[in-house]
Amino acid sequence: MVQANDSVLVTAGVGTTIATELIAGKEHQVVIQADNSGHLMGSLPSYLYTSPPITAGASKLWLDIFNATGSGKVMDIRGLWIIPKLDVALTGVVAVRLDLYRTSAVGTGGTAASTDSATVDVAGGNFTKFDETNTAVPAQITGRVAPAGGATISRWLFPMNYSPEELGTSAGGYLIQGVNMVPMLTFGQKLAVRENTGLLIRQNSVASVGSASILVAFTLE
Question: Most CB contacts within 10 A, which of 138, 141, 156, 174?
Answer without folding.
Answer: 141
